[in-house]
Amino acid sequence: MGYRVFITGSTGMVGKGVLLECLDHPDISGVVLVNRRPVDVQHPKIKEVIVEDFHDLKPLSNQISQLDACYHCMGVSAVGKSEEQYTAITYQISMDLATMLLTENPYMILCYVSGQGTDKDGSMMWARVKGRTEQELSELSFKKVVLFRPGFIQPLRGIQSSTSWYNTIYKLTKPIYPTLRSLFPNAITNTEAVGKAMINCLKTDAHPQIMDNQHINKLANELD
């Protein structure tokens, strides 16, 4: 019958990569998306819910009970934002979403994307906010909570970041990506590997709760 999954942030780089892998994977039978604007992908597996306010997720409630996993990939850059603004987007939306999911379906797994350097006691504002978010999500009684902390992510399949200067970096590093990957295999991952690793979280518990690039790449290549 296959797994049914829920993805946030599918208009962004990481979420789009996860979405494409889910659409291609034979074990994923359905994908529910929540976005402010429609994603530029058409596929019979997709059910998309458009919301105006991510703090009000009631329109999603009737989509949740049959889902097996939530891949929470939504995120924004902290550049130019106060800690209060960044907390409202990164922490509060995540907790509102998780609370709603847990109420409707405590038997699903939750994969949350933060980033390398996340630390609730860290010196960087974004790291503290994401660290607090990780900690409180991990304390919720889902079937399983997996925390993805990718470092450098190479976008594949024509995916671009919504942050323009990221795209400049990716464009400059693209010619040397194979060399970087061979020299630093544990420091670099890509959007395909993140998607495959999340799918494989449904199939095995043989992985750590906190997934860095090395763990992401390893899990992505297992169970194929």
Would you mind describing this structure in some detail?
The protein is α/β, with parallel strands linked by helices and 224 residues long. It has one domain (3-220): NAD(P)-binding Rossmann-like Domain (Rossmann fold, 3-Layer(aba) Sandwich). The chain contains seven helices and nine strands; from the N terminus they run βαβββαβαββααβαβα. It has helices at 13-24, 83-104, 125-138, 164-173, 177-183, 191-201, 213-220; strands at 3-8, 28-35, 46-50, 69-72, 109-113, 144-148, 152-154, 188-190, 210-211. The strands form two sheets. A seven-stranded parallel beta sheet has the order 3-2-1-4-5-6-9, sandwiched between helices. It has a two-stranded parallel sheet with strand order 7-8. The longest helix has 22 residues, at 83-104. It is globular. It starts with a strand and ends with a helix.
Key traits:
Rossmann fold, 224 residues, globular, 7-stranded parallel beta sheet, two-stranded parallel sheet, 38% helix, single chain, alpha/beta
The computed structural class is alpha/beta
Give the spatial strand order of the biggest sheet. Answer: 3-2-1-4-5-6-9
- The end-to-end span amounts to 18 Å
Globular, elongated, flat, extended or rod-shaped: what is the shape?
Answer: globular
